[in-house]
Structure formats: structure tokens, C-alpha cells
Amino acid sequence: MSSRLPFVALLAIVPVLALAACGARTGLLAGGSSSGSSSGGSSSGSGSSGSSSSGAGSSSGSPSCTKPLWLLFNLDDGTSAGSGIYAMRADGTGGHIVPLPHAPARNASISPDGTTLLYTTYMTPDVDGGVDSTLYAYDLAAGTAKAIVTTTDLTYSALSPDGRTVSYVSGFTLRAIDADGSNDRALLVGDENAGTAYGHPVFEPDSRTVVYGTQGAIGSIEADGTNNQTLLEAIPGSFQYPNPGFSPDYQQIVVGLICDEGSPYTLSVYPFASLPGASCQSGRVLTTNITEGASPNSANDPSWGTNGLIAYASYPDVFVIDPDGGDGGAGQNVTAGLTGDAGAATASDPVWLDGCAQVP
Prior knowledge:
Layout: H1 27-30, E1 70-76, E2 84-89, E3 96-97, E4 105-110, E5 116-122, E6 133-139, E7 144-151, E8 154-159, E9 165-170, E10 173-178, E11 185-189, E12 202-203, E13 209-214, E14 217-222, E15 229-233, E16 245-246, E17 252-257, E18 266-271, E19 284-287, E20 303-304, E21 310-314, E22 317-321, E23 332-333, H2 336-339, E24 346-353
Antiparallel strand pairs: 1-2, 1-24, 2-3, 4-5, 5-6, 6-7, 8-9, 9-10, 10-11, 12-13, 13-14, 14-15, 16-17, 17-18, 18-19, 20-21, 21-22, 22-23
């Protein structure tokens, strides 16, 4: 596993130029619509409320919307003009870099109700180690953005289902802040010297509990900093960050991880009610055709859409897979036309969004 740790890419702030749409349509994506099921079965139990609202990264599909979902992800070709948050529909059409009010934008996160896009922008700090990044909340209907927090080394973020709390990662620390920018607090402080850090947070449907990836494990903690616990262990202390994504009904999580030194890298699904307690090996393996992602901590950052498909990163691309095996478990590369499939550019951190959302 790579030992890459959180970093900030310092990019000049220039107008973002649109890129061509990604490749031709293919069978797996062409069937996507925002009215699909959560797929993969359901598991009831104490680990989930069974809410019908979407999990982090899989925004709720409007019942009346028949347009294919949007898929957003980081695209980085090493230049300011060709890097940012890229959007394309689930049928492969409409591809473009999203012209947000602040650029270059990265690390998209969608509120569970599908109305708000969180994103990060970077600037050159005045002093070494100084403030270099801002987290914004963009109202998709109004087309306006407001700053939530400006700090150092921002990467991932998530908005709670009730819209009141944001959890985010700053450097090696997992934090929470009220959505109005007040009450900023550290939840878990990592150790740079030991390489301890935290990955993409997601909220449980109660809006109080943050689920996160850390070195070789998945944990959860209350947004007030209490009740930290380990939910699932892969290889504790290893340089892998199994960032989880919820199914749209919150009954399951999907995660990319290696369970032990002799096991392959897998994208696996676990009933959320089985955590803690389930072993890493008990997950339902969707594919072993996967590598670490191109995100700041090399995670796969899966997102489970209301079209039943799971998007995930596998360096240097973003893939989509049917968790019910409709694609034979191979997964489909949806960014090869953008990356060249050779590392000339990288795609990472995918997130699904309602097909009728007003994406700029």
C-alpha cells in the first residue's frame, strides 16, 4: 500500500475551462436513472434507521425525475485549466468541468437531500503552514456559495442529513462545525509523525454520528466528540483508508480495503447493522479488480447512487459497478476518455447527484 498522506495541491486560481464529454455510452451506465432502487438487498437492525433518505455521496433521487443521475468527481491533469470538479451524466453525456464561483474546486460532497454541494478551494498561504483552503456550501437551486470555514489542508467534507452540521478533514484532524460556520471543533486529532490521519466522513441518518475511515479501520464518533468506537478492522495501523459509503437506505456500507496481508484489495459491502462485530472477511466482495485511488489519502471513496450503481476510484480512474452483479463484477471505467488510462490525468472521489439537480 502507498504511504501517501493528506496533502494540498496549490493551484493558481484561474477561470476553469470546460472539457469534452467522456467517451461513448455503455450498457451499464445507459440504464441509470434517479428512480432506481438502492440495490444489493437490505438488512434491518440497530445499526441503521432504515431511512429512505440517501447516504453520503448518493443524493436522494427525485421520484418525478427521469433524467440519468449526475456523477461528479475530481479531475486533475496537472494544470489549473484542466483540473476541478467534473460532472457527467450516468449515460455518459453532458461531461464538463463545473464552473463554480471559486476555482479550482475539488472534493465534491452532496448533502443527503441533494440541494447542497460542498467543495474545497485552495490558495497559496502567506506563510509556510498557513491558511490555504476554504470549504464552501453551494446552493444548487440558487447558484450561490457561502464559505463555511477557511483553514489549512482541507480535503473531505460531509453535511448531516438535517443540514445543521458539517464534518470535514483538515490535515491530520477530523473536525465538525455548525453549518453556519460557528462552533468549529476537533473530533479526532491525528499524529503527523505517526502518520495517523482520517478519511472521508459520512453521517448516519441520526445526523449526530460521523462514520470515518482511518488507518486500516472504520470508526464512528458523535459530532460532539464523544463515543468514539471502531466499527470494522482491516489491518490496523496500515496505510490504507477504508472510506465508507452508505447505500441510499443506510442499510449497508461499501468500502475498498485489504483485510489482511495475504488478501487481495477488494470493494466489499457490509450490512451496517452488523457493525461493530463483523469481521473484515465477512463482507460481500463486489470486485477484486481494484487498486488504491488517486485521492489525497489513496482511498477509493465509493458512492452508492439511487440508480443502484456504485461509483468508486481505482487509480487513475473512476469506475462504476452493479452491486447485484449485473456487470459480471468487473466494474466499468467511465473516465478512460479523460485520463487516457495512463496517468496523464487522474480522476478520484466520485459522488452521485440527482439527475434533475441544477448543475452549473
